[in-house]
Model the fold of this input.
Amino acid sequence: MRIVLLSLALLVATAAAAPAATPAPAPKRINVEALQPRSLLPKKPLHTEFVVEVNKYGQVTRVRSGKASSDAAYNSHTYGNALQMFIRTDDGRAISGLYRVTYDYNPKTARIRRNVTIVRAGGTDPNAIGAANAMMAVARKYGQKAKNAPTVQATPVPLMTINPKRLPDLPQVMKTPAP
Done:
């Protein structure tokens, strides 16, 4: 009797542990491209090109020059992307220097293709801080200033009412000397 109860308890314990050991189902993937309204996308091919400086870590430190497209929003998106880039070789090494980064938008596929080619190795400051890190330092600096700034409570004042019948006419205003 004792062995039967022991085996039954062991069977119940393994049955209870079995669902806990199975992994949870993967979350459902959302197709972001299907959610984008195609009517808002540009209808013609776009191309931007930037020459960027890269430090010894592969971070872009600054954009040296660039060629813009006709779409201002596309230009700002690709410029921001270029500032945040890390450029490294396939094996993970970083080569400081100048690189040409091109962005090509294809309206048929609604995709952007980015190409990176090295212009010249060296010739830049390998110890320069990355552009994204520099921007974050500025944001932290001004964020702390805003957080530490004293808050001034404004007292509500009654709004001035203007009677249009009492305003001077235009010829009279034009003859008034400037202060």
